[in-house]
Design a protein that fits this description.
By secondary structure, the protein is α+β, with helices and mostly antiparallel strands. It is 21% helix and 27% strand. It is built from 9 helices and 11 strands. The protein is globular. 45% of the residues are buried.
């Protein structure tokens, strides 16, 4: 076997240097929030039902905290995937979020600042030499308020190495019986019922105890259709939706072979936008086409890492309720959600404190697994509740 190498020498020159700012062309709309909640499988009435939201503390529809990523370029991965690594591909490795407020409503505008942060190269069982690169995404409202920060982790690797080292036993999609699917749908109601039970009520810090469990959230079975629905809810993916720039040209970043087609090419989009649509062509198509999933070392079609992060934020936000606030969340993605699998999320309160800002904070640990019990993601978050 030849020695595996990964040339990351170009990255040193770009660390800490801001990329071109990015923004959508239009104001946010209530239907953007509805589309997002639907795509993220998040049945929280606060984000899609007009009548319910009208009698909430907000008096109108409000975006989930996870919606921030829908208004970003590249799911927030651009500064974490910037710089040339020849013959490489990228998957998501994690997200750390800080939320400062205020919330997002229809009529708001978001601008996105991107700054490469750091990187480290490690040897992995997945693909041999692998670059774990991080980048900061700062999100501003139209008045200049910094309302959220995301530190995204990208995993950059040579897909040929991943194919060589990949296990083949997961290539076959599981088959679910009708009875098993009924059971999955029944299990989904635990989280939905918990949302409805809390409703507009206030979850108080004083009523929460260390060791409290959050209602289990079950999602799936995932499918190409559900992944496509997710893809369409990211506003950057809509034809003509954004003021695009040339920072993240996959050829200049070293993407390999057929995965180097440029999603959202600002020039080609005006001529033949379907050729720039990552749902069909480009580095993201492995999510929806088995051939291209296996080309980058995945066993079959796989979900979006950014969506996994959104699922975690929604899980936490749903538990906190409309009076609560996810202050900080740090999540690591260990494996993707694959077509045919379900995702099972569990959470537990692991700490309580009043922080230096006199906020009543609870710490919650989250685990995401598939139907076999394999861990897909872990996270730890701080959530502000009313005293």
């Amino acid at each position: 076997m030849t020695e595996k190498t990964l040339d990351c020498s170009d990255l040193d020159r770009i660390m800490g240097k801001a990329l071109t700012p990015w923004s959508l062309k239009d104001e946010l709309h209530n239907n953007d929030f509805r589309r997002w909640a639907q795509a993220m499988h998040y049945p929280n009435l606060l984000h899609y039902d007009h009548d319910y939201a009208a009698v909430s503390r907000f008096g109108r529809l409000v975006a989930p905290q996870s919606f921030t990523i829908a208004a970003a370029e590249g799911h927030g991965a651009c500064p974490a995937g910037y710089g040339l690594i020849p013959d490489s591909h990228l998957i998501f490795g994690g997200d750390e979020w800080w939320f400062y407020g205020p919330r997002l409503f229809a009529g708001d505008r978001v601008s996105h600042e991107k700054i490469p942060f750091d990187y480290v190269v490690k040897d992995t069982k997945f693909a041999g030499p692998t670059c774990f690169q991080r980048g900061d995404n700062n999100y501003y409202k139209q008045d200049g308020t910094l309302f959220a920060k995301q530190r995204s982790t990208a995993i950059r690797y040579n897909p040929a190495y991943a194919v060589e080292m990949a296990a083949k036993e997961h290539a076959t999609e599981p088959v679910w019986t009708d009875e098993e699917l009924k059971d999955v749908e029944t299990r989904k109601l635990a989280f939905i019922d918990a949302l409805h039970e809390l409703g507009h009520a206030k979850r108080h810090w004083s009523s929460v105890q260390v060791g409290d469990k959050i209602a289990v959230r079950v999602m799936g079975p995932h499918s190409v259709a559900s992944f496509a629905t997710e893809w369409r809810a990211y506003l950057m993916n809509l034809w003509g939706s954004a003021h695009r720039n040339t920072d993240c040209d996959p050829v200049k970043l070293g993407y390999v072979g057929e995965m180097a087609a440029w999603e959202m090419d600002p020039v080609l989009e005006k001529y033949n936008p379907e050729a720039t649509d990552g749902g069909y062509i480009g580095p993201s198509r492995g999510h929806m086409f088995k051939r291209w999933a296996q080309f980058v070392g995945m066993p079959r079609e796989y979900g979006y890492g950014a969506s996994m992060g959104a699922w975690i934020l929604d899980y936490l936000g749903g538990w906190a309720g409309e009076w609560g606030w996810v202050v900080h969340c740090n999540s690591q993605y260990r494996a993707p959600a694959l077509v045919g699998d379900i995702t099972v999320m569990t959470g537990e309160v692991t700490g309580k404190q009043v922080d230096d800002h006199a906020r009543s904070i609870v710490e919650v640990k989250v685990r995401m697994a598939n139907q076999l019990g394999a861990t897909l993601a872990t996270g730890i978050a701080e959530i502000e509740l009313l005293a």
